[in-house]
Amino acid sequence: MNTHSPLPALLLLQLWVMAAALNQEGVLLLRAKGGFEIPGDSLADWKSGDPTPCNWTGVFCSSGAGGQPTVTKIDLSELNMAGPFPAEFCLLPSLSFLSLSFNYINSSLPNSSVLPCSSLTHLDLSQNVLVGALPSALSSLPLLRHLNLAGNNFTGAIPDSYSLFPSLQTLSLTANLLNDTIPPFLGNISTLRQLNLSYNPFAAGPLPRQLSNLTNLDTLWLAGCSLTGEIPPELGRLSKLTNFDVSSNFLTGEIPDALSALTSVVQIELYNNSLTGRFPAGLSNLTALRRIDASMNHLSGPIPDDIFSIPLLDSLHLYDNQFNGSVPTTAAMASHLFELRLFGNQLSGPLPASLGINSPLRFVDISYNQLTGEIPRAICGGGVLQELLLINNYISGGLPQDLTRCKTLTRVRLANNLLSGEVPAGIWGLPNLSTLELANNSLSGSIPADIAGAKNLIKLQISDNQFSGNIPAGIGSLSMLSELSASGNRLTGRLPESLRVLGELVLLLLHKNFLSGELLTGIQQWKNLTQLNLANNEFTGLIPSELGDLRALVFLDLSGNQLVGEIPIQLQNLQPSQLNLSDNQLSGSIPPLFMNRAYQNSFLGNPSLCRDPTGNCLSSINGARRGRSKFFWLLRSILILFAVVLIVGLSFHRYKKRKTDMAKSGLNNSDWILMTSHKLGFSECDISRCLQEDNVIGSGASGKVYKVVLGNDEVVAVKKLWNSPDMDAVAALGKIRHKNIVNLWSCCVERDSKLLVYEFMVNGSLRDVLRGGKAGALCWGLRLRIAMDAAEGLCYLHHGCHPPIVHGNFNSNNILLDADFGAKVADSGVAMVVDGVEKSPAFMSVDAASGAYHPPEYSCTRRFNEKNDVHSFGVVILELITGKLAADTEFGENDLVNWVCSGIQQNGVKEVIDSRLDLCNKEEEITKFLSIGLLCSSFLPMSRPPMMKVVKMLARLMEHS
User: Fold this and answer.
1) Mean pLDDT of the chain
2) Cα-Cα-Cα-Cα dihedral of 618, 624, 628, 632, to 10°?
3) What topology is assigned to 216-325 in CATH?
4) Cα separation values, 123 from 31, 74, 77, 169, 386, Å
């Protein structure tokens, strides 16, 4: 008797029947799905049991031959899929639309894969990580009208065959790694309407005149393409052109008058070139033109009157040029103008009196010029003004009363002018105001109670005016306030008790006023406060011990008041880069940790303050005891005299020895400036003795690094800078405290020596480890943790500092490892310190020594922002994966990013992974890690994620590691 149940066989038969029910197109789609790594259940409804795939996610069908549904469209964009290009899709006979954009398609695109796609009219593979050469076979697809391969890593030249597209209307190759010149034969694609080639590292070359043959073109986007020479006047023949962008190139010469023939143009982008001469007149004929941006060039002469006669003009950017003369009166007649940015020129004279009456102005920035006259009364006449920026001019008069009705204002920056009179009360309390900067004027009056209405105020800068009266209690209701700068005024009265609750406060600067009363206590909510300056007022009473609990505080100045009592011992909890309690009436002892050279001037002008480190003062607050016998007085005098002689002798001996040490180390202690942000147990002399070549542990673009072992066995790293540092920048860097950023402890500066003292990291730099004997110790988990640590440090600089700090020289040499291989970011903003450039929140100049990490656009702009740091971080990830250094000579004229892309194209992901890594069950995780690295190092800046997002991506990866 057969005891086996027939059920399993029936189940197998049923499954076979279900699979057999799925049509051939569904089978092809399932085969393609099998080649992807798909997070979550994005394609969970792709099931073999369905008779047709027409109801599957991303699949669309139409009636085919015999009325049977057939797949005509596939849209699987933004599903975070990873894997090679699915050639099976091209076997679908009726497929006309295919979009796989914003995924992680990480293979090459061979001709054999795309040739069968003969029915395609729309192919979008943008924002992936495709590598290799552009497939030449695409031009053989007879129906193809839209081709978007932007945001990948394609290399080489645009194939010659692309001149043969029979029907192509859109060609977008933006943000790849194409490195030949822009070919003139693109002018042969007569059907082309949109040509987008921006942000590729093309070889320097001219803008091809042949593109003027594309008479159907409506979009020409060639930003960041290394274009040189002049703008061809023949482009004026493109009468259908609506968008013209040749920004961020190396174009020279004058703007051709022929641009006035672009009768359909809506947008002209010429910014960040080297264009010269006058701005062309005659643009008033361009009736469709809305936006002109010719900023960051070398244009000169007056701004043409007729530019404001363009009927639909809504945005004009001419900033950072050399325009002179006045702002044309016609600017007041531009009925659609909402954005006017003319800052950084040589404009003079008054603004048009009626500016704003006829225009819906939202953004006005004419800062850094030589404007005179008054602020136009009706500049907010359109009722939508959000930003009014006129800093650094010679504008006089008062603030217009009409601004009190401008409820849309968010930023008002009028500092460094000649403004006078009282500020209308309603301006103080504008409900959407986030920034009010009125510093360095001659404004007067009091701060009214109306300020309580400015619930969104973040920054209030009114220093160096003539404001008087009390600080109103209502200021405590501004819960978002991070900066209150009101120094150099005539403010009186006590600090309002309500200031205590301002938990977002970072800067409180009220020095040089007439404020009185006792300092506030109960200030525990000031956890974010970094600078407190109440100097040169009339404060009395004790120094609150709670100040020692404000761990973020690095600048404390209470000098020039009438404070009494002892210095709270709790202040030793701080790490101030500047401490000034001088010129008060303090008594008692100086806390021991402040008894060093760094604070030698911090306590002057307090006659009753004990300066003896032992606390045994010869003159105490009680004075010398009277009634002692003359014998004891004489004996004490003799002992004092003996002690003085002994001290002088020892000091002379120490001086001679110190001079000898200085001579050996090349240092002179005649004029040291010491700034500290750490409790120091050493002096600059202790450091100088150790600056010997035997102690050198590294050398970089900004200086040479020494390992210094101090007398107390403390080990520090000392960077001897090549150039003089910006001391304000040093102070700013000394305030940075994060677990993944190397702490800057102090700065010692003398005429011939500039030293930065850092905490010492035992395992050196990541670069040294990768190229040295310790590389084998870096297992997969350790490499991922190093990347996470470095990402968190860089994220803090970008998103946790105010203003944000751009590292500017991020690379594996500036990632230092502690004893447990925990990573910290070093040299944070040192390029800013040594260059002495203006410290913008977004940009700063850097040394070009670390070119292997620099993004492609750096060669054009020579400027750095957060996106450039992200690119450098992506390169570091590739170093961690490959075990190779970005600056390895084996790459020749290539770079690590291109090498990785080429390796993946030729041999797959395994080819580029460090052979020292154990891949056991980790290849999928490493592939995702690689995708993050390639995403961060994308050619197009806008494709690079912010560091906050990078940290989240790495955190998700670590959860599954």
Assistant:
1) 84
2) 10
3) 3.80.10
4) 20, 10, 12, 12, 41
Written as six digits, the tokens of 876 are: 């570091």
Kindly provide the residue ranges of all beta strands, DSSP E only, lying in 741-842, ordered along the sequence: 744-750, 753-759, 815-817, 823-825
Q: Which fold is adopted by the domain 672-760?
A: Phosphorylase Kinase; domain 1 (3.30.200)
Please choose, from the candidates 552, 557, 587, 588, the residue with its C-alpha nearest in 3D space to the C-alpha of residue 573: 552
Q: What is the pLDDT of residues 290-315, one digit of tens each?
A: 999 999 999 999 999 999 999 999 99
What's residue 495's pLDDT?
97
* Residue pLDDT, tens place only, 510-547: 999 999 999 999 999 999 898 999 999 999 999 999 99
Q: DSSP labels for 162-184?
A: GGG-SS--EEE--SSEE-SPPPG
Query: Which residues on adjacent β-strands are paired with residue 219?
Result: 194, 243
Please give the Cα distance from 675 to 961 (Å, whole number): 43
From residue 62, alpha-carbon distances to 56, 69, 89 in Å are 14, 5, 16
What tokens appear for 309 in the block?
């006669």
What's the CATH superfamily of 764-959? Transferase(Phosphotransferase) domain 1 (1.10.510.10)
Beta strands in 214-361 (DSSP E): 219-221, 227-229, 243-245, 250-251, 267-269, 276-278, 291-293, 298-302, 315-317, 322-325, 339-341, 346-350
Please give the C-alpha separations between residue 574 and each of 546, 549, 579, 606, in angstroms, as whole numbers. Answer: 11, 8, 10, 21
pTM: 0.71
Do domains 216-325 and 764-959 share one topology? The answer is no
According to CATH, what is the number of the domain 34-180?
Answer: 3.80.10.10
3-state class (DSSP) for residue 823: strand
Query: What class has domain 519-612?
Result: alpha beta
Q: Is 720 annotated as a binding residue?
A: yes
For 640, what's the count of Cα atoms within 13 Å in the CB-facing half-sphere? 8
Angle at 570 between CA 568 and CA 571, to 5 degrees: 80
Structural tokens at position 688: 């100088």
The answer to whether the bond into 803 is cis (omega within 30° of 0) is yes
What are the tens digits of pLDDT across the range 858-880? 655 556 678 889 999 999 999 99
Rounded-to-integer distance, Cα 165 and Cα 794, Å = 45
CB 873 within 8 A of CB 954: no
Query: Are 662 and 669 in contact, with CB atoms under 8 Å apart?
Result: yes
Q: What is the DSSP string of 885-948?
A: -TT-GGGTTS-HHHHHHHHHHHH-GGGGS-TTS--TTTHHHHHHHHHHHHHHT-SSGGGSPPHH
Closest to 129 measured CA to CA, from 89, 182, 81: 81
Torsional sign, CA 655, 658, 664, 665: negative
Q: Do residues 847 and 831 lie in contact, with contact meaning Cβ atoms separated by under 8 Å?
A: yes
